[in-house]
Amino acid sequence: MAAPPTALEAASRPAQSASDPIVRFQDVSIAFEDKPLLDGISFQLARGETKALLGVAGSGKSTILKLTLGLIKPDSGSIYVLGEDVTRMSEEQLFDLRRNIGIVFQESALFDSLTVRDNVAFRLMEEGGTSEEEIERRVLEALRFVELERTVNMFPAELSGGMRRRVGIARTIITQPEVLLYDSPTGGLDPVTSNTIIELIVKQRDLYKISSLLVSHRLQDAFTMATHYFDRKTNHMQPLPPEARREVPITFLVLRDSKVIFDGDAHELEHTRDEYIREYIS
Q1: Which residues have a Cβ under 8 Å from the Cβ of 3 and sit 6 or more positions away?
Q2: For the residues of the chain, what is the DSSP string, one character each?
Q3: Which of 16, 87, 78 is nearest to 47 (CA)?
Q4: Fold adopted by 23-100+179-281
């Protein structure tokens, strides 16, 4: 199976070592209408790691994604993405940085008037500099990755909700971004379709080692990611034996009352003594 195409490189990005975090929040606070949403939160996303952001509605999970993209600025604190402090960057600098960040929206955000091919190719066409032949190759590779190459000439209205989500993932990975942001990718989907989306996320994690922040309202999705791996031979997600699960590059960040109350792996989450978290995951 072909890998997604090579990522676009930002010319002025500082050099990073393999041990440097891809994303780092340092004492970040933000309030809306004088109501604290995030209060002095700190965490890191390691290279190749997936971090699931958990918490009740309104706890600030999606706000973390917006802050990572530089779409909003914190009231205080620093946010480093790919070695850059996004809180100090101009819009032009942020535009260059965002070329290496992909986001999958809950509702896919496809253009209804464009075919699947043009939706997936949209970013390449907007940025220019890529030949039609190269665009065509990349589109087919991305659609093949999500197993939807047959939909290339269809319109979003002709697709099911799950298929639209998969096209959204294809559009996101076409330039193989270094960071992927998933905003409730299974929200509103039935369990079977949700599992298909989670399988694609696990596939992206295990085959291409892309770092991801994932907002999830479904604990089952996050635990599935922590207990499964993508098998190249069967081309499907497979369960891991319990003794191998600690090696899966996934961690969990739990938010409550504007604070981070947990940041650790699935084993630590399952064995926490925090009463609130135990009730939340039960």
Answers
A1: 141, 176, 207, 208
A2: -PPPPPPPPPTTPPP--TTS-SEEEEEEEEEETTEEEEEEEEEEE-TT-EEEEE-STTSSHHHHHHHHHTSS--SEEEEEETTEEGGG--HHHHHHHHTTEEEE-TTTT--TTS-HHHHHHHHHHHH----HHHHHHHHHHHHHHTT-GGGTT--GGGS-HHHHHHHHHHHHHTT--SEEEEESTTTT--HHHHHHHHHHHHHHHHHH--EEEEE-S-HHHHHHHHHEEEETTTTEEEEPPGGGGGGS-EEEEEEETTEEEEEE-HHHHHT---HHHHHHH-
A3: 16
A4: Rossmann fold (3.40.50)
- Mind listing the pLDDT tens digit of every residue in the chain (282 residues)? 344 433 333 334 555 666 789 999 999 999 998 899 999 999 999 999 999 999 998 899 999 999 999 999 999 999 999 999 999 999 999 988 998 999 887 777 889 999 999 999 998 888 777 899 999 999 999 999 999 999 999 999 999 988 999 999 999 888 778 999 999 888 888 888 899 999 999 999 998 889 999 998 888 899 999 999 999 999 999 999 988 888 899 999 999 999 999 999 999 999 999 999 999 888
Structural domain boundaries of the chain? 23-100+179-281, 113-176
Mark residue 226 as left, alpha or beta (left: phi above 0; alpha: psi -120 to 50; beta: remaining): alpha
- In sequence order, what are the beta bridge partners of 252? 52, 264
Maximal CA-CA distance, the chain: 57
Report yes or no: 170 and 145 within 8 Å, Cβ to Cβ: yes
Q: Which residue is listed with tokens 């990522």?
A: 7
